[in-house]
Amino acid sequence: MAMDTVRKTLWYIESHLEQPVTLDELAAIAGISRFHLSRSFAQAIGRSVTAHLRGRRLSEAARQLVDGAPDILSVALDAGYGSHEAFSRAFRDQFGRTPDDVRAGADLTSLKLVEPILMPDTPITAIETPEIRAVDGLLLAGLRRFFTYEDRAGIPLLWQRFGPHIDNIPGQIKGDAYGVCLKADGDPTDGFDYLAAVPMRSLNDLPDSLVGVRIPPLTFAVFQHQGHVSNIGATCAAAGEWLASERRMKPGVAVMMVEYYPPQFDPRTGLGGCEVWVPVSD
Fold this sequence. Notes:
Blueprint: H1 2-15, H2 23-30, H3 34-45, H4 49-66, H5 72-78, H6 84-95, H7 99-105, E1 131-135, E2 138-148, H8 155-162, E3 177-182, E4 191-199, E5 211-215, E6 218-225, H9 232-246, E7 255-261, E8 274-279
Antiparallel strand pairs: 1-6, 2-4, 2-5, 3-4, 3-7, 6-8, 7-8
Helix pairs in contact: 1-2, 1-3, 1-8, 4-5, 5-6
InterPro entries: AraC_E-bd (IPR010499), GyrI-like (IPR029442), Homeodomain-like_sf (IPR009057), HTH_AraC (IPR018060), HTH_AraC-typ_CS (IPR018062), MarA-like (IPR050959), Reg_factor_effector_dom_sf (IPR011256)
Protein name: AraC family transcriptional regulator
Organism: Kaistia soli DSM 19436
């Protein structure tokens, strides 16, 4: 139970990293009191909830600075600070260096960053037999980024950054959303590309900040995930074990796994249910 509480809290922090977040909100998402959340989180992670949240925001701010952010105030506001001065104090307390120094040096190696934390994915012990579903080709548009298997805890932040685009893309089919694991360029063994996306009628006239992907018609084994989305990794792990035991892996396809989020899924609470699809041979 404690690990489930921590998992939900970490998911909420990552998926709302650039929005105001209070301890009361986190406790409500976890379904326990502030006291019990703070105690469980510190015991599992080794630092308080507020220290972890602050460290994650300042670490992402440091990345923006090194990437050449045009002005420090905009980075400060994104990190939840109302002034350059308050941000600079917190940044110096966290890293021992000023934001100006980090931006000028364009180097993160001297900073002890607070990275997203990946909780272990334990496969669901009793999973329902999947539905075998033929899916027509999909046109998807969204944000795409490479993740190693170790840093995939950063995926909720990608969704948060994609959020403002949803329902504002010309040609979007509103209601559904998809998270697609794709083979990256060169088919590296240490990671994959993840696409946070929505379905489209056409990929013409996409904003420059988004990428379009065509998914060919495929047959999928479809697994239902009814719990909180922070534990979707357990369903993904169980789907992988089923695929291995049934020997139905489809070779030669770029799509490795799909998360399907129907209209009833609530991205704020992480509830509402979703599906995990894995391509299978016919």
